[in-house]
Structures are given as C-alpha cells and as structure tokens.
Amino acid sequence: MDSVMSFFGLDCTKKKEKEEERHLRANDRELNLSYKYATNAIKTSKYNLFTFLPLNLFEQFQRIANAYFLFLLILQVIPAISSLSWFTTVVPLVLVLLVTAVKDASDDFNRRKTDRQVNNRRVSVLVSGELRSEKWMDVQVGDIIKLENNKFVAADLLLLSSSEPLNLVYIETAELDGETNLKVKQALTVTGEMGDCIEKLAAFNGEVHCEPPNNRLDKFTGTLTFRDQKYALDNERILLRGCTLRNTEWCFGLVIFAGPETKLMQNCGKTTFKRTSIDHLMNVLVLFIFGFLAFMCTVLAIGNGIWEFQEGSVFTAFLPRPDGVDASFSAFLTFWSYVIILNTVVPISLYVSVEIIRLGNSFYIDWDRKMYYPRSDTPAEARTTTLNEELGQIKYVFSDKTGTLTQNIMTFNKCSISGKSYGDVFNFAGQRLEITEKTEKVDFSYNPLADPKFSFHDHSLVEAVKLEAPEVHNFFRLLALCHTVMAEEKEEGNLLYQAQSPDEGALVTAARNFGFVFRSRTPETITIVEMGVQKSYELLAILDFNNVRKRMSVIVQSPEGKLSLYCKGADTIVYERLHPSCSKLMDVTTEHLNEFAGEGLRTLVLAHKNLDEDYFREWSTRHHMASTTLEDREERLDELYEEIEKDLLLLGATAIEDKLQDGVPQTIEQLSKANIKIWVLTGDKQETAENIGYSCNMLREEMTDVFIISADTPQEVHEELRNARKKMKPESEDEPTIIQRGILDKKSKMLPDETVDGEYGLVINGHSLAYALDKSLEQELLRTACMCKTVICCRVTPLQKAQVVELVKKYKQAVTLAIGDGANDVSMIKAAHIGVGISGQEGMQAVLSSDFSFAQFRYLQRLLLVHGRWSYLRMCKFLRYFFYKNFTFTFVHFWYAFFCGFSAQTVYDEWFITVYNLVYTALPVLGMSLFDQDVNDRWSVQFPQLYSPGQLNKYFSKTAFFKCVLHSCYSSLVLFFIPYAAMYDTVRDDGRDIADYQSFALLAQTCLLITVCVQLGLDTSYWTAVNQFFLWGSLAVYFAITFTMYSNGMYLIFTASFPFIGTARNSLNQPNVWLTILLTSILCVLPVVAYRFLLIQLCPTINDKVRFKVRQAKVALPPPSFRTRLRRRSSRRSGYAFSHAQGYGDLVTSGKYLQRGAISRGRGFSSSIQQRSGALQEMPQMYRAVKDASQ
C-alpha cells in the first residue's frame, strides 16, 4: 500500500508515529521491515505522471490572480451579464497555465533526474550469505554493505571492520561540513575481528539500540548488543551518508539510518517556496486593485440604476426590458458586466510577461563569460528563475569562510630566523617587490623529495640552508619534528602527508622542501631526512596542545644522544617562557611578527632548549606518575609542562597564509560601497576568523573599535552587548524602538536602523551567540550588530547560521543573501531570501540547495552589481509601464460609461481588447525588460553606489504605483475626450458623417496604442535592433491586423465576429484623424517630458549623475584599476596557526592512528629517487587531516 501511495506522490512516512528509539538487528530484514523504517531511496521531486496535472493546477489556482481570472471566465459564459466573448479571457488564461506548467514540469524533471542518478548508484550488499551489487534505493536498515576506496557512503553506517590496521578508516566529509581534511573513524574491536570474512559477517546478528533520526552531525549515542555483551557506540564508530572513503581499501558497515532519515538529508532543512519582495508587494497591490475595481464597478452600477430609472423608460420602445428586470436589477447585472470589462486593470498577461522576463535574465547569468571559471570548467548558473530582481535589493550578505572567502589552502609564506626575515623579494636598489606569478621561484631540484607544487621566492633562505647555518637548520628541524602529521609513502619517494589541518601540513611541507623531510613515525620514533642524511629521532614525550596552553612541545633524542625540547606556539605564550638572553632577538622577531600580522598571516613562534639527561630522567619519572594518577591528572601534568618549558631559546617565527580566493578583498570593498553589510558565519576558531577579517579588509586598523563578545553566561553576554552598544551610541535607549508593519493580521515588528559615528566591528563566539539568540537577548544582539560595519560569528553550528539569518529577516525589512560551499551552509542558504552556492572543493551539497551558483566568491560582485541591479531595474520599469498602459486602457472604458448610459458597452473593438496585451504591446515591453540598461556593466561595477536605490525600493513601491495610476488617469482623460471632441459633429472630406461609434472606437484605440508606444520609447534607456524591431513591428502589425479584420472579406466569412467592416479605410484616410492622433499623443507625453526634465535639473538621482558622466566621457572607459595588495602595518598579533585538537598527541604516541609500517628505504637522496617519473613531478602538494579540529 505504501508503494502505491508513494507512486501517487504521497509521503506515508509523515503519518508514522514519532520515533523515540531505533532498534534493529543485523542481517534480519524481516524484523527490521516490521518497524517501517525509511528505505534508502530519496525523493525531492513533487510530481509523477498521474499527479502532475491536478497538483500543478491546484498550486497555480492558489495564486489569487489565476483564481480571479477563472472566476471572470465563469462570469463571461453567463449571457445576461457578459458583453465580451469568452475567448478574451480563456485564451490568455490557458496560455498562462500552460507556460507555468511547462516550466514546473521542466524543473521537476531535473529534480527527478538527479534523484534517479543518486538512487541508481551501485553498492555491494550482503544478502543471504553473499555479496550482491544492489542499487542504493534497495538498501534497507539492518543490511551490511561493503564500501571501497574513493566511494561515497551510501547510508548512515555503523563501522564494523576495515582493511586498515586497528580497524581504522579515513573519510572525507566535504559534503557534510565543508572540510576537505581527512577524519579517522575506528570500529569496535569485537566487530573488527570479523575482517572481510563473509561467513562471519553473514552470521553477525548484533542488535543496535540508538537515538532516533536527527540532524546532529557531531553526536551519536547508542549501544550494540552482541554475544550477550553490550558495547557503547558514539560518533567515532559512525560513517555518515555523503562522506567519501579515502586511503582505505575496503570497509564493512551496518546500515543504521537510510534515505530521508540520514543525518545528511535531515540537515537539508525545509525547502520553502521563495518569493521576491516585488511578489509580496504585487499581492498587496492586486488586493488594492480588486478593491478599486469593485469601487469603479459600484459607481458605474449606481450610475446605471439612476440612468435606467430616469432615462431608461424612453428607450423601452427600441430596447424592451426582459420581464422582471427593473432599474435596481439592471444595476446589479451591470456591476458584473463591468467587472468583466474592467478586468484589464490586472491583465493575466502580466504574469506571463514576468515569468518570461525572469527566465531571460536568468539566461544572462548562465551565459556570462565573466562569471565562468575555466580552471574547474564551471559556469555561473541560475538554478532558480524566479528571484532575479531580488538580487538587486540585497542589504545583508551572510558568508561562510572556509572555501567561500578562502581557498582552504595554507601556504608557507614568510619566516623570521634568528632575527632575519625571509620571504620578501628585493631589487638591486633594495626596494621590496610585489610578488606575482611572474616572480622567479626558488629551484628545489637539488632535493629529490621536494614537493613540486611548493613555491617560495626568496633565494636567500635556500642559500642559508645550503651554508648549514645552525640556527636555520635548527628552525627546519623543529618543523620536521614538532607536529602530529602522519606520512604515507606507498611508493619510494612519493610522500603524502595526512595533517589534522592544512596549516600544520604546510609547515611540514616547507621543512620538506628546504631539506628536512619528515619521512615516517612510530609511537617511539620519528624518521626524517636531513639534507640527504636519514636520521631516526627517539620520541620521548609529546607535551600536547590545548586551548589554554596554546603551544605544543616534543622531547626527542637525536641519534648522537643529545636530548632536545622543541616548542611552537602563540607568540605571547612562548615569549613568557624564553631565557632572558633572548630579549634583543625577541624585539627584532616582534617587529617581524607585527609585519606578518599586518599582512593577515597566521604566525607561530618557535623555540628550543637542550635538556640535561639526569634531569630529564627524573622529570620523566614524575611525568609517568602524573599521567597514570586518577586524581588531578590534568593539573599535575600542566605543572610538569610549565616546569620543563622554560628558559627556552628563541629560534624564530613562521607566517602562513590562509590563501584568500582571488579578488575577495576588492569584492568586499565594492559591496561595502554599495551599502551591503557582510556578516561572516564560520565554524572556525576566533583567531582564524579575525585573521581572515583583516585579510579581507572587513576588519581594519582604522576602525574605531572591534568588540569581542565571548562571555559564558547570559548575563555577561547581555552586559558585553550593552556596553558595546553604549560605546557606539551613548544616547541609545535600553528599550529598542519597535515599528509595527504590515496589513490586516499579518503584522511584523521592525527594528529601525540606528546611525553611529565611526566604524565598528563585532566578533562573537558560538557559545556566546547561543545565549544571544535567546528570545530575551535577540533584539539586543541585532541592535548592536547592525550598528557595526562588520560582524563575524565564529564557532557557530549550521543551525546557528540559519538562526542568525532568520533573526535579521524577522526584525529588518531587508533582503538577505547567504553564500557558502558546504553542507553545513545548507540551512543558512535555505533560510535566506537568496541562497548562493560555491561549487568548489567542498562538495556540491550547498550548490544543490542554492538558487544561484558559481565557482568563486568574487563573482558575487558581478551577480549583484550588474545582473541583480539590471534585473531589478528592468522589472520595475516593466511593472510601472505595464500598470500605466493597462490602467490607461481601462480608464477610457470608465469615462466612456458616462456617455453610453452605463450600458457596459465596450469602447474598443472586441478583437482589440483580446490582442492588446497579447500582441500589440507584449513584445515592445518585453524588449525593454530584457535588454534595457541605464549604464553598461563596467560603469555598474565602477559606481557601486548605483545599487543603493534597489535597497530602498525607489524604483517600484506603493508610491510609484499610485503615481502610475495618476499618470494613467491623466492620459485616459486626454485619450477619451480629445478624440471625442474631435469626432463630435465631424464629417469626412466628401461631406459624409464620420462621427459613428465604430470610427470613434478605432480612433481611440489607435491613439492609445501610439501613445503607449511613445511612452515606452521615453522609458527605454538602451536601444538595440531588437527593441526597434519590436516597437515599430508592433505598430505595423496593429495596422496590418486592423485593415485585415475590418475588411470586406473577413466580414463576409465571419459576419458575427467582424462587424467593423470598412471602418479602417474610411477613417484612417482623413487628415483630421491623423491630426487628432498627433495632438493626443503630444498632450499625453508633454507633461512627462517636462516633469522628467525638471527632475533631472533640480533633483538628479545617482543614475542621472552617472549617466551624465558617461555622456561626458567621450573616450572609452578607462580600464579598471588592478589594486596591488595592501600591506597592513599593525601591532596586532595574528592568530597562532595551531591545528590539532587537545589529546591528539596521546593518540600519536599510543600508535592507534598509525598506518602500516613504511616501506623499506635507504638514504633520502638516492639515485633512484632522483630518477622519479615525470608524473610524480606533477603531483599536487597534498596533506590530509585525520581529525577535525573544529569538532
């Protein structure tokens, strides 16, 4: 039954009772199916072949305008009240429904296609004692499946066994958390013993009791019962759907959650139907128009009642009334007749045109070569075609950091060794040169183990290494020994580093290229190659990193027997532990650190000391006792670490660049000039987030202040936020000013923007943000944050990202945009008005949930300032013009009613009414709405201030709408009364009468069409051949159709349908008719021209000023300036570049996380290595992470 229901598009799982605890048994499908758990098939499409028509029509008729036109159609088939033929409504309505249905079907087909691709992936499933290749969609909860290297994880699995020692697996979680670093998972020993033995795995009947499906990526609780023993399960035993298996030949897993119940799908968030602010405004205006239509119809119905009562009896001899019809009933029928006639105030073609315009502007984004990224062959893509104009109104941008602003690639950029700074390049005059791609790189060919992708430009450092300067050798020796990186060498000389994060891998790679190659490690030793000589150091202790210590040390014994302690850490921490003799060197190194920090680089200070053997033996004994005690273990270990980590000798400092994507600082600067506020929401630690803030020029030294919110209680968070607000604006009230907005019962609270003197930044931690997002503090948080130029939220969860976006949407009447590249950004992308996905290194989950996607953050500038602004400008021009031409068209009917006895007679020919919006005026306005631009793309980027009017709704608003109505009212008066007066008592040249109804109708509609075409010409800023063709072509088509429909032939063939026989040729050959057309057009257009002229002279807008500047620029626009990277001089410390989490050192020394032993090798600089293949030379610089520090 469920399958039948799902076939018809109905989701039966929603009716299932809420799951409290999951229970399953391995290899027992019968039991597991009884619980009715979800299968592994996913379904994001809405329709199937049978449900498409009814569901789509139901959705379309939920749009109030479509329902309204259906109601009109019903009225038109009632003969008593209809003065228009049914086809005047049914043709446009069917066209609208058809176009929308085709578009919806296309979108749903693409979703179904994606679903089918995922569901039809193959995986090996253990069924009836043998492995079978099954589709993902056929996998069930409780199945045991086999995964192979570089394959996606098919469902949420309990890891049972793997090919690696100690049952480890390495996984990449880019689709889940946006991190490309490798993580390590480990199976239980009791299940790991089964290995890849099919018989043992088939006989496995363990039972799992665990938490129900949820969206917590970092948490799992459950138990496994096997052979009457109960084993605890946590997140370290679980492989989540969306991960990729890496560096692991195979593994087996038990399916815990499948399909829509997996944590990946649970994190996708609720997909909401996004509508633009113009759509919402249109709904309000349509309601007003309906009310106005009812008012006009009521006025005319009352007029009809009065006329019938006073004058109607005179005409009964010619027009006898039906039985039972008196003046009041006639007024009632007239009301509905005028509802039909005046319905053109909301023409159904409006919605068709809007969809076409949005689709066309979406294609411009898809076709934009300036948003194409050739390196990954990725074009920009408008995945949603209904939100284009919203891109021109963005006020807040919420951005992820890793992979969005940065490339997530760490590079060893500079260093300071023994008081000398390395990394800069100078010319012969001693002037510092800007490093570009053309700058000569250091040649590392002398080192056969060097990474070919590593680049460095300062040759003096290589010379210092070759001269065997002891301080330089000690510096790189420390980098090669003091870390927790794992080395994998599957082929001789082919090294792959698995670092816990890229910055630690970058340091070890730097040491590798300068001749100190980390080769392998065991729990007791570290093997490195020093300038071609392989040495094995005995690893005696790792003094591990934690957030309080902010440093890491190792104690090693060299092959010569010398005991040494090597330490690296944050500068302020290491400086406190230096020997007094280092004071001068410390001053020089501090200057270098300030310079590095000024460039936004991540710094570490390196120090060392030699140890006395007797002292170390005694210290080691106390260390062993402290590490095995059960009471106050951490405190006692910290005391021992403090004792031995003192009187250190300073070696120098490193500077690592977390490489920004190209053009990020310039993009952020341009968006800031456009009055767009950028908030960074990242899961990284505070120091890293601050560094990127300074690198991107979001945070600047010139700022008045940067507030750090890091309190641990709600009271302290409130106090810190309040103090920050009071510092920015001392006179601000404690209670915020709330503005109630909205109509009817849809009221919303708005917090007005508060202006401050100076520029401020706000950095808030995740745990403080959790308190600040509480209902009691959210307004305080928003007030303080919105006073700041820049806001950075660090250590935030995916849910908190979405909550921040929802908070701004709740209290600010502003359009929001969220941009990210990982699955952890999906909820934020879905919460914002516009979601943008970066298709980069970190999976496609964000792209699949986004409305727009491209490969680089810098393309956001062009998306908003060019495409967004143009789309908004075109849509607003279209709406203003469309309402103008249709209100003008309709008001002429209204005035005519006073001269036709309120009889509901139409002033125009029926055929003109039918094709006015569909043929005569459709293409010219579409041409303007698809091609118009006030200035070209380069000027749009050159002057970001052009973007501001969109944020303030200046181009189309309720005020602009009412101006259109007044303009239409004036034009309609001219268009009715000038032809009426000109035709009154007028005769032809030959003396025959011309003042008949049909001639007047032809004259009125011709004046109307020419006037609206002239108005369109005034509104068009950018003329193309297409615009010209559409405008003049529409006028030509009008006259061609008019002469054809009013011809003798059409009358003879369809007598009832074409009664205007000969009207065109009899009227349009008279000079006075053409003079009337000219006079009417001039009177309609003249006030508009005068008003616009005075407006430009007295109150020019930013658009007027820029267009004037463009006209003055007779020569071509100068090429955009390519700004060199600004050096930021500062005394501020950059964040220390630590990567691994607390406790990782213990795992290294325990041997749990070590791979198989390295292959046997001789000396590092053997001739065989020197003969490495050309393919190896091209291998990228890679370092993999084994555990996520951010967790």
From TrEMBL:
Q: Which GO MF terms does the UniProt record name? A: ATP binding; ATP hydrolysis activity; flippase activity; magnesium ion binding; phospholipid transporter activity
Keywords in alphabetical order, please: ATP-binding, Magnesium, Membrane, Metal-binding, Nucleotide-binding, Translocase, Transmembrane, Transmembrane helix, Transport
Note whether Oxidoreductase occurs among the keywords: no
GO BP of this protein: Golgi organization; phospholipid translocation
> What broad class describes the main subcellular location of this protein?
membrane
Q: Where is the P-type ATPase C-terminal domain?
A: 847-1100
User: Entry's SUPFAM superfamilies?
Assistant: Calcium ATPase, transduction domain A, Calcium ATPase, transmembrane domain M, HAD-like, Metal cation-transporting ATPase, ATP-binding domain N
Phylogenetic placement of the source organism = Eukaryota, Metazoa, Chordata, Craniata, Vertebrata
Q: Which organism is it from?
A: Scleropages formosus (Asian bonytongue)
Reactions catalysed, semicolon-separated, are:
ATP + H2O + phospholipidSide 1 = ADP + phosphate + phospholipidSide 2
Cross-referenced PANTHER family: PHOSPHOLIPID-TRANSPORTING ATPASE FETA, PROBABLE PHOSPHOLIPID-TRANSPORTING ATPASE
Q: Which InterPro entries match?
A: ATPase_P-typ_cyto_dom_N, ATPase_P-typ_P_site, ATPase_P-typ_TM_dom_sf, ATPase_P-typ_transduc_dom_A_sf, HAD-like_sf, HAD_sf, P-type_ATPase_IV, P-type_ATPase_N
- Topology with respect to the bilayer: Multi-pass membrane protein
Q: Which cofactor does it need?
A: Mg(2+)
Q: Transmembrane ranges?
A: 84-102, 284-307, 327-352, 878-899, 911-931, 960-980, 1000-1018, 1030-1054, 1074-1095
Tell me where in this chain the P-type ATPase N-terminal domain is found: 25-90
Question: Where in the cell does this protein reside?
Answer: Endomembrane system; Membrane
Supply the name of the protein. Phospholipid-transporting ATPase
